[in-house]
Amino acid sequence: MKRILSIDGGGIRGIIPALVLAHLEDTTGKPVADLFDLVVGTSTGGILACALTRAGPLRRPLYSAHDLVELYRERGHDVFNGSVWQRISTLGGVLDEMYDHKGLEGVLHHYLGDSLLCQALAPTMVTAYDIERRETIFFKSWRERFNHINCVQACRATSAAPTYFEPALVDLDEQERALIDGGVFINSPSVSAYAEALKLFPGEEFQMLSLGTGELTRKIPIEDSRTWGKAGWLMPLLSCMFDGMADAADHQMRLFLGNNYRRLQLNLAGASDDMDDASPENINALAELARDLIAKEHETLTQIKYWFQPEL
């Protein structure tokens, strides 16, 4: 039996899957890199995937999931560091990106250093999209094509959400590629993770844990939408795409794997659904929702824990 971990995108809301994984590490006594045979993430999920499989001394994981919870608490404001004036001058991301990518890159360098994707402790994949060639990119730690790609490059690309950060420029196939957040085509990467697992482990059976970053609760009143043009629809349309794709992937995986598939997701009532709300108040609210989810899904998490028990 091979185990797959899939982590959604969602910006600062990545603290939710980080807390769930911290709970799983605590209850099993094992790090994520030892628990799963394939780790796949999009956007903030891609950052978690690369950080949790980064090798430290003696080829042991450098970070625990608890360490990554602190990434969101302590460094979230460094990633989303735009001023009020920047929001106004860019019309909320309509005229230009809302945030300087240097803040994001600084955090990525702090946690990922110069580690190469191919050095990951478990097979790891993150998603991106090439806007010039109009093609999907799946950075795979086991593919020779990506041996020169470091984790900072892969994570900068997968987290370059349109309107938030400018595209990442990455040398790939001896060409410079302009890459953006894989969430534009696959915010919940579970189906692609399953497809890769079928190729990596032919003939095996699979169990998958898919972690969401919260379902959106903010309604889009039809009265408002009637007056929107291109600019007005931009941000709501992105949120609809991300949410809709995650629901579709969840439905498909339930058909593919049945009881061997578990999805942990929550409603964002009580916290902001903005990907960039890194205020202490919102981070605390997101963490509280995650703790409620862990309590509510105690039985499911206990079942998942038994996935990792030695077979008799």
TrEMBL record:
<feature type="short sequence motif" description="DGA/G">
    <location>
        <begin position="181"/>
        <end position="183"/>
    </location>
</feature>
<comment type="similarity">
    <text>Belongs to the patatin family.</text>
</comment>
<dbReference type="InterPro" id="IPR002641">
    <property type="entry name" value="PNPLA_dom"/>
</dbReference>
<feature type="active site" description="Nucleophile">
    <location>
        <position position="43"/>
    </location>
</feature>
<feature type="short sequence motif" description="GXSXG">
    <location>
        <begin position="41"/>
        <end position="45"/>
    </location>
</feature>
<dbReference type="GO" id="GO:0047372">
    <property type="term" value="F:monoacylglycerol lipase activity"/>
</dbReference>
<feature type="active site" description="Proton acceptor">
    <location>
        <position position="181"/>
    </location>
</feature>
<dbReference type="GO" id="GO:0016042">
    <property type="term" value="P:lipid catabolic process"/>
</dbReference>
<dbReference type="Pfam" id="PF01734">
    <property type="entry name" value="Patatin"/>
</dbReference>
<keyword id="KW-0442">Lipid degradation</keyword>
<keyword id="KW-0443">Lipid metabolism</keyword>
<protein>
    <submittedName>
        <fullName>Patatin family protein</fullName>
    </submittedName>
</protein>
<feature type="short sequence motif" description="GXGXXG">
    <location>
        <begin position="9"/>
        <end position="14"/>
    </location>
</feature>
<dbReference type="InterPro" id="IPR016035">
    <property type="entry name" value="Acyl_Trfase/lysoPLipase"/>
</dbReference>
<dbReference type="GO" id="GO:0004620">
    <property type="term" value="F:phospholipase activity"/>
</dbReference>
<keyword id="KW-0378">Hydrolase</keyword>
